[in-house]
Design goal:
Structural Genomics Hypothetical 15.5 Kd Protein In mrcA-pckA Intergenic Region, Chain A; 15 strands; single chain; Alpha-Beta Plaits; 7 helices; alpha+beta; about 25% helix
Length: about 230
Amino acid sequence: MRINKLLSNYGICSRKDANRIIKQGRIIVNGQLCEPGQWVEEYDSILLDNEPIKPKEKVYIVLNKPVGITCTLARDVKDNIIDFMSYPDYIFPVGRLDKESQGLILMTNDGDLGNKILESDNGHEKEYIVTVNKPFHDNFINGMSEGVEILGVKTRPCIVKRISKDTFSIILTQGLNRQIRRMTKAFGYEVIHLERVRIMNVELQDLEIGKWRNLTEEEVSELRSYN
């Protein structure tokens, strides 16, 4: 695999940061300066700052992201999620949640599990609570659940249930860009509140906005068991 992927899999840094570290001459592979994008094997002698690299302990966190925080590793972006959490080690968000939205975001240093969760073909469920700008009729619920034409494609059928005159829950198995906002807009509605409350088996429960917790062993084990 490429050195960037290995460093990410080991929980050392992101693939993008790997390029920076390599260019700084801090990685030696089999006695030679590493080159960007170099192919390596796990049995190779790989030194970072003259110390052998080794996998870091895996971290699995659920954060209740507040509105206004951007899910990016880019530290030059104002109100980025990394600075917000100030976690001492390298972690990254699994997927995204709009800056204008709040709720559950998974943070980890486990690249393999992160990619597995994001694989859209696996049909993993994500549940949201959504409030729109005006009351809706049942034909809105039915239309949303059957699929909506956005971004040149029709969204997958999904589960939509009314909570109140202007609020509903929706369970998606795909993650198109700003999908829920685009779906509601197709029916003439505007989202005024969007909260993700579940990804697969992991739920927000009573986690306060802006707080985070480590996943339990049972939660991690179940996440890994999904196809």
